C-alpha cells in the first residue's frame, strides 16, 4: 500500500495492565504481540511513521525491537493516557498534517477501518469510528487541533475528547468497535469492526 507521510499513527500502549496481570503489550496472539498487531494494522493502512508510546519500564522491548515503529518512552505512565497522548502527538514529524490515534490493547482494528477514518478527512478536525452512536478509536486528529490533548489530564483520553467536542467530529460508521483486551478472558473476543 502507498505510504502517505501526511498522516502518522500514534499507538498508545503505556498502560500498566493492572487488570490483565502482566504487560499486555507483550501478549502473543497468532505469533505476534498485541502491539505488533496494532503497528502492523497501521502500516497496512499506509500510515507513516508509526509512533508507539510505551512505559519506560518495558525497556528493552523484548521481541519488539525489530517492529517498524518509533518508540517513545513514557516515564510516568501512572499519570494516565492523557500524558501518553501528548507525548505521542509531540513526536509526530512536522511533515505530517494529521495523526491517527490507536490503542495498543485493540489488536482487532482492521487496516480497512483505519483507512476509512483517514479517507473521511474533511471539514472537521477530528474523525472517529462510530458504532451504535458511540465515537471511539481509531481517531484522526488534524495537526491544527493537536492542542486539544493539552487540555486533558489524568486517565482521560480520546472518548472524553470526542464527547466534549461533538461539533468537531466526523463519525465513520463501523459495525462494532474493537474489543479492548483488559483481561485474559478477553483474548477470545479479539476481532474488529
Structure commentary:
The longest helix is centred in the N-terminal third of the chain and has 11 residues. The protein is built from four helices and nine strands, in the order βββαββαβαββαβ. A hairpin with a 2-residue loop joins strand 7 and strand 8. The model has no long low-confidence stretch (mean pLDDT 83). It is globular. By secondary structure, it is α/β, with parallel strands linked by helices. The chain has a single domain, classed as Spore Coat Polysaccharide Biosynthesis Protein SpsA, Chain A (Alpha-Beta Complex). The chain has a seven-stranded mixed beta sheet, sandwiched between helices.
Short characterization:
The chain has 193 residues and is α/β, with parallel strands linked by helices. The protein has helices at residues 34-44, 81-90, 111-119, 158-164; strands spanning 7-12, 28-29, 32-33, 50-55, 70-74, 98-103, 126-131, 134-142, 169-173.
Amino acid at each position: 500500500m502507498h505510504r502517505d507521510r501526511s498522516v502518522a499513527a500514534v499507538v498508545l500502549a503505556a498502560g500498566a495492565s493492572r487488570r490483565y496481570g502482566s504487560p499486555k503489550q507483550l501478549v502473543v496472539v497468532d505469533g505476534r504481540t498485541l502491539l505488533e498487531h496494532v503497528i502492523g494494522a497501521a502500516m497496512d493502512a499506509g500510515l507513516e511513521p508509526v509512533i508507539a508510546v510505551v512505559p519506560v519500564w518495558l525497556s528493552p522491548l523484548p521481541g519488539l525491537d525489530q517492529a517498524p515503529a518509533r518508540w517513545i518512552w513514557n516515564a510516568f505512565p501512572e499519570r494516565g493516557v492523557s500524558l501518553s497522548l501528548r507525548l505521542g502527538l509531540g513526536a509526530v514529524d512536522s511533515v505530517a498534517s494529521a495523526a491517527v490515534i490507536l490503542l495498543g490493547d485493540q489488536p482487532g482494528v482492521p487496516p480497512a477501518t483505519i483507512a476509512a477514518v483517514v479517507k473521511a478527512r474533511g471539514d472537521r478536525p477530528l474523525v472517529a469510528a462510530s458504532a451504535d452512536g458511540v465515537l471511539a478509536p481509531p481517531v484522526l486528529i488534524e495537526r491544527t487541533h493537536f492542542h486539544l490533548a493539552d487540555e486533558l489530564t489524568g486517565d482521560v483520553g480520546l472518548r472524553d475528547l470526542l464527547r466534549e467536542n461533538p461539533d468537531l467530529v466526523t463519525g465513520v460508521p463501523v459495525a462494532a468497535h474493537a474489543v479492548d483486551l483488559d483481561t485474559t478472558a478477553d483474548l477470545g473476543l479479539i476481532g474488529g469492526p
